[in-house]
Specification:
The chain is mostly helical. The protein contains seven helices and two strands; from the N terminus they run ββααααααα.
Length: 115
C-alpha cells in the first residue's frame, strides 16, 4: 500500500509491524514525546532523557522505547520531507492502523510544527 507521507511508496515493513506499539501509548504521552521529536527533526535542542522517561512511564522497555521513537521520528521526518498536509498524514496513519486518538495527536503536533 502506498502512502503519501512516504512519497507515494510503500511504508517500510518495520514501521507497519510496530504500529501496535504506537497504539499502546496514551495520547497525552504521545504528544509530549512528539514535542521533543519535532525539535530533533528541526535540528533544535531536545531532551533525550525526557523522551526515555516518557516511554518508561508507559511501561516500555529500552528496546520498545527506541523502536517507538524511531517510528515516530520516521513518520514526522517523512511527512515533512514530502510536504504533506496534516489531513493527508492523518489519513495515512489511519490506513496503517494507528488508533484514532493517537493519529489525531500526531497530526495535531505535526500541523503545529509543519513550518
Amino acid at each position: 500500500m502506498r502512502f503519501e507521507f512516504c512519497g507515494n511508496i510503500d511504508c517500510p515493513e518495520w514501521v507497519i509491524a510496530e504500529i501496535p506499539l504506537v497504539n499502546r501509548m496514551s495520547a497525552v504521552k504521545l504528544k509530549l514525546i512528539l514535542a521533543q521529536l519535532t525539535k530533533k527533526v528541526n535540528g533544535l535542542s531536545y531532551d533525550l532523557d525526557k523522551l526515555l522517561k516518557l516511554c518508561k512511564d508507559q511501561k516500555l522497555d529500552i528496546e520498545e522505547s527506541r523502536c517507538l521513537l524511531a517510528i515516530l521520528e520516521f513518520v514526522i521526518a517523512q511527512a515533512a520531507k514530502h510536504d504533506v498536509s496534516d489531513t493527508v498524514l492523518g489519513k495515512d496513519l489511519m490506513q496503517m492502523g494507528v488508533a484514532i486518538e493517537n493519529s489525531n495527536g500526531i497530526t495535531k503536533v505535526f500541523g503545529e510544527n509543519q513550518d
